[in-house]
């Protein structure tokens, strides 16, 4: 894969990983690697379409539709498969965070549509994805962003149907995007995460009140994993 810098590409300074603006030139992206095409087919044939098991009307992920149509959908591929160690994956996430921050600066009026995906084709040790996700989520959430873990067989339940698994993806990946109003169920396990949520969604509330609400709404124990039952928005209330 070429790492030549261009307006449609960003290169990690350490790993050489190249993140591309996928829908800026979809044919070029799909030619890069078989995994590139698997990603866009998953987006175009699954994420932006309704699904009978989703539990609500509309696309599986409306956010992705906005991101792709506005050409703010970026993705890169990290080679190595199962030879990649947790520290190596973590180092690439460092680069991804820096690149995502830079892209936000370039698109200040449309950051809610910006997505940055880091793919790990050939990685079957998806426990390493989970480990890096757990370690880096607090830092990312504190910025008002979200870090999602996706991979084949990911069993995280959906917001509308416990048996539907929206993070089950054809290629292992870690995804950066802006925090949205519908992310509440993914943040209820820690007071600081909920504080970041209210800071991002209700910044005009006094800090003391944000902390007090966060402490009151925090969930402990196994209930934290039951994403579906923790959903607080209605079908007609879309992510903001």
Mean pLDDT: 94
User: Could you give the order of strands across the largest sheet?
Assistant: 1-2-3-4-6-5
Low-confidence stretches: 1-5
Proportion of residues in helical segments? 25-40%
Instruction: Give the biggest beta sheet.
Output: 6 strands, mixed
Alpha carbon gyration radius? 18 Å
User: Which range does the strand content fall in?
Assistant: 5-15%
Shape: globular
The computed structural class is: alpha+beta
Cα separation of the termini: 36 Å
The number of helical segments is 8
SS elements, strand count = 6
Order of helices and strands: EEHHHEHEHEEHHH
What does this structure look like?
- The protein contains eight helices and six strands, in the order ββαααβαβαββααα.
- Helix 1 packs across helix 2 and helix 4 packs across helix 5.
- The protein is globular.
- The N terminus is likely disordered.
- 39% of the residues lie in helices and 12% in strands.
- Helix 4 links the parallel strand 3 and strand 4.
- A six-stranded mixed sheet has the order 1-2-3-4-6-5.
- The protein is α+β, with helices and mostly antiparallel strands.
Which features does this protein show?
alpha+beta, 240 residues, 6 strands
A few lines on this structure:
The protein has helices spanning 26-32, 34-47, 62-69, 86-106, 126-142, 191-201, 207-217, 227-230, and strands spanning 9-11, 18-21, 73-77, 115-119, 145-150, 173-178. The chain is α+β, with helices and mostly antiparallel strands.
């Amino acid at each position: 894969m070429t790492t030549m810098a261009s307006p449609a590409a960003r290169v990690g300074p350490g790993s050489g990983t190249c993140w591309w603006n996928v829908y800026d030139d979809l044919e070029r992206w799909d030619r890069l690697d078989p995994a590139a095409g698997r990603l866009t087919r998953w987006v175009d044939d699954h994420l932006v379409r309704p699904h009978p098991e989703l539990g609500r009307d509309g696309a599986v992920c409306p956010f992705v539709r906005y991101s792709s149509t506005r050409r703010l959908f970026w993705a890169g591929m990290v080679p190595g498969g199962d030879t990649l160690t947790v520290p190596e994956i973590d180092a690439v996430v460092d680069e991804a965070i820096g690149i995502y921050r830079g892209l936000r600066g370039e698109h200040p009026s449309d950051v809610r549509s910006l997505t940055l995906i880091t793919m790990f084709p050939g990685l079957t040790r998806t426990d390493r994805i989970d480990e890096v996700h757990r370690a880096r989520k607090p830092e990312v959430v504190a910025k008002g962003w979200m870090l999602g873990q996706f991979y084949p067989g990911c069993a995280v339940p959906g917001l509308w149907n416990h048996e539907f698994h929206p993070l089950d993806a054809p290629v292992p990946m870690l995804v950066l995007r802006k925090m949205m109003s519908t992310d509440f169920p993914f943040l209820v396990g820690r007071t600081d995460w909920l504080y970041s949520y209210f800071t991002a969604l209700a910044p005009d509330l006094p800090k003391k009140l944000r902390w007090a609400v966060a402490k009151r709404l925090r969930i402990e124990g196994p209930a934290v994993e039951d994403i579906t039952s923790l959903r607080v928005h209605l079908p007609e209330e879309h992510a903001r």
